[in-house]
Amino acid sequence: MDTDTALTMTPAVMTKEIGQPDDFYKMAFQFQRIMMVYESAIKQIETKLDILNKEYKVTGNRNPIQTVKSRIKSPDSIAKKLEKKNIPVTFDGMIENLHDIAGVRVICPYIADIYTVRDILLKQPDLTLLEEHDYIENPKESGYRSLHIVISIPVYLTDSVQNVKVEIQLRTIAMDFWASLEHELHYKNEANVPDSVRRELFRVAETIAMTDREMQEIAMELRELD
């Protein structure tokens, strides 16, 4: 058994014209197999977070996780992102160049919980950190805040071990609220967003960030009273 291989599949063009039914079946099966591997990687991350939740519940400690969400990018979204990056729309191009095909979002009550969960995950020996972007310490121009990490996790199949990339986004409840509404507004208005709206979104993001910090300070004060 190959125990140290990256996620690889036979090269095939995702958007090429299908000449024979057998070609279609082969490509469909290949894509389904790739997505199955990504879904398996997500399940492993979700299991790790679920165990963490249960451990905190048993020990009586306050849980640093509020909610866990996950998703797999759609074929259309994958193809559009590859085209935008000028990457060949192939299975190999997708696997090698896109880090967010599999995504997990962890919603935490407080900012400190985000880093707690991150540290616990990265201590696990089967997870390898590939990338990290801290948009909490360094917010995007829009005001967006979140901690993004891209990890590699092994998925054990019958004949191989596939190392799969998963993007994990860690946010507070308030950050997730802002990001969800901001995404919806931009999705509904794909044309140019007026500067006045951008400024207002940034102002709201700053207000939410200040609220996050104040709520964490209040929580810390209350814990000191116990």
Percent helix: 40-55%
- State the end-to-end distance: 53 Å
Number of helices: 6
From N to C, what is the helix and strand string?
EHEHHEHEEEHH
**Uncertain stretches:** 1-6, 8-13
Q: Indicate the mean pLDDT.
A: 87
Number of E strands:
6
The outline comes out as: flat
What's the gyration radius in Å?
20 Å
What fraction of residues sit in β-strands? 15-25%
**How would you describe the oligomerization state of the chains in this entry?**
single chain
Instruction: Summarize the main sheet.
Output: 6 strands, mixed
Describe it for me?
It is a single chain. With 226 residues, the protein is α/β, with parallel strands linked by helices. 51% of the residues lie in helices and 21% in strands. It has six helices and six strands; from the N terminus they run E-H-E-H-H-E-H-E-E-E-H-H. Strands 1, 2, 3, 4, 5 and 6 form a six-stranded mixed sheet that branches. Helix 5 runs antiparallel to helix 6. The longest helix has 39 residues, at 21-59. Mean pLDDT is 87; it is low at 1-6 and 8-13.
